[in-house]
Amino acid sequence: MASGHGGDADELRILSETVDGLSRETLKAAELAKLLAAALAALEATETQPGDDAQLANVDLQNILQKQQQTLQLMSNVSKMLHDTAASVIRKIGG
User: Fold this and answer.
1) pLDDT tens digits for 24-34?
2) What does the domain layout of the chain look like in residue ranges?
3) How large a percentage of the chain has pLDDT more than 90?
4) Residue 72: which of 89, 7, 80 has the closest Cα?
5) Which of the residue ranges 18-22, 31-35, 47-51, 69-73 would you say has the lowest mean pLDDT?
6) CA-CA distance, 15 to 81, in Å (whole number)?
7) C-beta of residue 59 within 8 angstroms of C-beta of residue 42
8) Under a CB-based contact definition with an 8 Å cutoff, are residues 82 and 22 in contact?
């Protein structure tokens, strides 16, 4: 069930594109982590201030956390695609 060399080249191209995408998403996650750290620092600074400022900071923090969760889920999905693609290439080369 091994495909021709053209199929292997396509699989390797897809694998390479997936790795590139994962690298980009990793950088996005790092940026989100920095935003999260800044938001936490801002929230800690506003804890002593009563009222709307603390609530707004809390909403901002929740939004950042949600974005981080979405990015991590996307990275997980890309990682699974990378694994599946690599396993497929290995099976085709070995078979």
Assistant:
1) 777 777 777 77
2) 5-94
3) 4
4) 80
5) 47-51
6) 9
7) no
8) yes
Residue in 11, 21, 9 with CA at minimum distance from that of residue 79:
21
Query: At 55, is the secondary structure helix, strand, or coil?
Result: helix
**pLDDT at 4 exceeding the cut of 60:** no
Q: Which amino acid is at 57?
A: A
Question: Under DSSP, is residue 2 helix (H, G, I), strand (E, B) or coil?
Answer: coil
DSSP assigned state of 16: H
Cβ neighbours for 21, distance < 8 A, ≥ 6 positions apart? 78
Question: What distance separates the 2 farthest-apart alpha carbons in the chain?
Answer: 68
